[in-house]
Amino acid sequence: MSRINKLLTRIARRKGERELERISRLPRREAGVTEHVQIENQKIRFTDGASFEEQYRQIFQRGIYDFDADVDDPLMIDAGANIGMGSLRFLQRFPRGRLIAFEPDPRIFSILETNLREFDAGNVTLNNAALWTDSDGVWFRGDEADAGRIGGDRHEETVFVRTEKLSTYLHQPVDFLKLDVEGAELPILLESKGFLSSVRNLFVEYHSFIDQRQALDNVLSLLTEAGFRYNVESALRKQPHIYNPKIYDSMDGFVHIYAYRSTT
What we know:
The protein has 264 residues and is an alpha/beta fold. The protein contains six helices and 14 strands.
């Protein structure tokens, strides 16, 4: 790389960092479009600045969903796709990849569609639906950011959404399954546990709600029984033994689980 190209790259990175800081300070749930933070020269639409900044840093800078594939057209399932940051990362790394994405929130789904359309993605199936234990539909509470979830009775903050079963999509080899579904991870995994042998790599964001019994042990046992090995990291509480009364959206913690098949 020439000195001029290196200089231009540094300038672009500085502009990107300044924009990320600006976006993170926007009022919560204020929609916008990026300028200097672009993916494959495409601007990205978002519904909440703080969640966009966190997703960009985790997914594109840290690469928490990155994986190796033996083929150039891996099958990837993005459950809880939100505005499409994970999907965009998958397709950036595997332009010929096959992607199936699920996002139940109707408003956020429209942003997901726009972002993927502008990215000019090819072999992509977008589903305005939630993964669940049946296909009967369910009440869903959106939050116009990244924490909408299944649950609750019908009221003004909920919408009835279409549901599908994960097992329906696991009758074929799946190179990567991302499951970020705000507390629905265990029911979904239980519904599909007889088919998880088709999944090579699995990312689960486990959510611990302050008013519910913790079930991380059940999730990890299920993954072990399905033949996975895994790494685990806390994604919310960096000093969990120090009392902190601040609860994030009724959660006292959430955990990233990186599960994979052993090659030995």
